[in-house]
Design brief:
Oligomer: single chain
Main location: periplasm
Keywords: Periplasm, Redox-active center, Signal
Shape: elongated
Protein name: Thiol:disulfide interchange protein
Strand content: 5-15%
Number of strands: 8
Order of helices and strands: HHEEEHEEHEHHHEEH
Helix content: 40-55%
Subcellular location: Periplasm
Function: Required for disulfide bond formation in some periplasmic proteins. Acts by transferring its disulfide bond to other proteins and is reduced in the process.
Length: 260
């Protein structure tokens, strides 16, 4: 058996992993370890390794996505790996896979089916939100403050109703209201009317949003999509950067118009 082939067996308890195969000797394992270490040093010459030895993970490793995050699974040893994988050129393969997955997830979202809040010509964000989520309420206050500063956004709202027990009823109330935006603002400011509105259309939309949430893999609120990138939670710095990116062209145009 070649040293390269032996590397596959360089895991604890893997010496008898293949059916009907002969046990691997200690010398063979040592040879495989040495070959693996030499390959590591030759491939990643910019890194210096102080220690080298067998990992607890055995067998093949598979890539999976959970909540928009790339994870790795080794079924033979039942290990879950939260890791970043690089190729020999330093390319972050995990990040690439995550970006590709995000692109596919965004394509599953139909903006026309969202509850739209904000000016039509403003920068657009997709927002998965829950009326009972305190961070969602804080995000709503943030957007309102930014709008007062002259930095409004167009929010495409989809409701997440599987986290808090009254979220579905409040979302239905908003969707059944004559003025949906006013009902949304009231709900997110903590106001609960004595009687929540109900209607078949609103109930169907809440169920439809729940299906989309499961399909896209949203696991927490708020979850936003800005410039095609998923943002989990109320990440104020990222949202400030998003607003700044979109405000600069508008500001440049305004200055240009003044000069004319």
């Amino acid at each position: 058996m070649s040293a390269a082939a032996l590397i596959a067996f360089l895991q604890p308890g893997a010496a008898y992993a293949q059916k009907d195969s002969k046990p691997i000797s200690s010398a063979q394992l040592t040879e495989a370890a040495g070959e693996a270490e030499r390959q590591l040093q030759q491939t990643f010459t910019n890194l210096r390794f102080e220690e080298f030895g067998p990992a607890p993970v055995a067998g093949p490793i598979y890539q999976a996505t959970a909540g928009g995050r790339i994870i790795y699974y080794a079924p033979q040893s039942a290990h879950l790996l939260f890791a970043t994988v690089y190729d020999r050129n330093g390319v972050n393969l995990t990040a690439l896979a995550q970006e590709q997955g995000a692109t596919r997830r965004v394509k599953a979202i139909d903006p026309a089916k969202a509850l739209a809040i904000g000016p039509v010509d403003a920068p657009t964000v997709i927002e998965f939100t829950d009326p009972d989520c305190p961070y969602c309420q804080a995000l709503d206050r943030f957007w309102s403050a930014k709008a007062a500063e002259g930095k409004p956004v167009r929010r495409l709202i989809f409701f997440v109703s599987g986290i808090h027990p009254t979220a579905a009823a409040k979302a239905e109330h908003i969707l059944c209201s004559t003025d949906r935006e006013a009902a949304f603002r009231a709900a997110y400011s903590g106001q609960t009317p004595p009687v929540l509105r109900q209607c078949a259309q609103g109930r169907a939309k809440v169920a439809e949003d729940a299906e989309l949430v499961a399909k896209v893999g949203v696991s927490g609120t708020p979850t936003l999509v800005a410039d095609g990138k998923f943002i989990s939670g109320f990440q104020q710095a990222e949202l400030e950067a998003f607003l700044d990116r979109h405000a600069k062209p508008a500001l440049a145009k305004a200055v240009s118009d003044v000069r004319r």
